[in-house]
């Protein structure tokens, strides 16, 4: 017969073993898609139920949910009423609709991610639509630092990697980022910068740069052509936080060739504007 002390020791050992088993649950997750011992069908069906809703399916009835989820009608009813009770759905007659609380699920994801993670899918879409490189950068002193680059599928690419630095004064992203500075800070930045010409097009005169940055601030986007490298042009838009402050810039860079500045404004800028506004909207909602 075990003593009380031995019973307590055994219980502690069993408890430790149980905790370790619960924590080390990766052994019970099958990589081939098979359901593990930890799989909760009711939770999975609840999430699948929320995924039913969209532009093409703004509402569902109990019967529609049962059909779409391939569950019984009573099960569909329990799912919908449970989601209604916890606030994710509302009921109008026979129809169930999502509530704004569903947005919290997406915001939880985005709030755990940084700017780069939020921007990447939008940048990849821009690169795919335009066939040009899309970049994300921030201001660090008098330089821009690249956080990400989305490359299109084409043989010729610009050789810049994450962490690469370029002088802000001569780059379209840099001028967007400099445009957020007040007059005193801008004067300091331009005094500190090494205003050397990289090409015949590089603007190095301080007064000219101030005028150009003022134009960028007024119109909300920046265009540069051949100032860092002959034949390479760029157009940029800002990314804002919840306070309306510019925290980064997004850019399309390209070999201009026979295209004009008007072509860039008409054909490239709308894609960039759409992406920058979407990124700003999501980022400002969680930061």
Automatic annotation (TrEMBL):
Could you tell me where the Polar residues compositional bias lies? 1-10
Q: Which Pfam families match?
A: HTH_IclR, IclR_C
Question: Boundaries of each IclR-ED domain copy?
Answer: 101-285
Query: Keyword annotations for this protein?
Result: DNA-binding, Transcription, Transcription regulation
- Keyword DNA-binding among record annotations: yes
One GO term under biological process is: negative regulation of DNA-templated transcription
Question: What InterPro entries does the record point to?
Answer: GAF-like_dom_sf, HTH_MetabolicPath_Reg, Tscrpt_reg_IclR_C, Tscrpt_reg_IclR_N, WH-like_DNA-bd_sf, WH_DNA-bd_sf
Give the residue ranges for region: Disordered: 1-28
Q: Which GO terms describe its molecular function?
A: DNA binding; DNA-binding transcription factor activity
Signal peptide coordinates: none
Q: Which PANTHER family match?
A: HELIX-TURN-HELIX TRANSCRIPTIONAL REGULATOR, ICLR FAMILY, TRANSCRIPTIONAL REGULATOR
UniProt name for this protein: IclR family transcriptional regulator
Name its species.
Answer: Noviherbaspirillum saxi
């Amino acid at each position: 017969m075990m003593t009380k002390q031995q019973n307590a020791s055994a219980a502690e050992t069993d408890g430790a073993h149980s905790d370790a088993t619960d924590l080390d649950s990766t052994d019970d997750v099958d990589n081939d898609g098979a359901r593990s011992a930890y799989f909760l069908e009711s939770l999975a069906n609840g999430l699948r139920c929320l995924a039913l809703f969209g532009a093409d399916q703004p509402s569902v009835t109990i019967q529609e949910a049962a059909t779409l989820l391939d569950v019984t009608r009573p099960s569909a009813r329990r799912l919908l009423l449970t989601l209604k009770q916890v606030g994710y759905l509302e009921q109008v007659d026979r129809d169930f609709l999502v509530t704004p609380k569903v947005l919290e699920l997406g915001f939880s994801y985005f709030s755990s991610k940084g700017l780069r993670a939020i921007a990447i899918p939008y940048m990849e879409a821009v690169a795919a639509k335009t066939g040009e490189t899309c970049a994300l950068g921030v201001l660090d002193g008098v330089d821009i630092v690249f956080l990400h680059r989305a490359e299109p599928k084409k043989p010729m690419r610009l050789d810049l990697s994450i962490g690469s630095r370029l002088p802000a004064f001569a780059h379209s992203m840099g001028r967007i980022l400099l445009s957020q500075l007040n007059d005193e800070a801008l004067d300091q930045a331009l005094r500190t910068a090494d205003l050397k010409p990289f090409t015949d097009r590089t603007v190095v005169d301080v007064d000219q740069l101030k005028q150009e940055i003022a134009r960028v601030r007024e119109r909300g986007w920046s265009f540069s052509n051949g100032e860092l490298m002959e034949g390479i042009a760029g157009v940029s838009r800002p990314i804002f936080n919840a306070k309306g402050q510019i925290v980064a810039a997004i850019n399309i860079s390209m070999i201009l060739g026979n295209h004009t500045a008007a072509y860039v404004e008409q054909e490239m800028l709308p894609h960039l504007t759409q992406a920058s506004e979407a990124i700003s909207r999501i980022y400002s909602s969680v930061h």
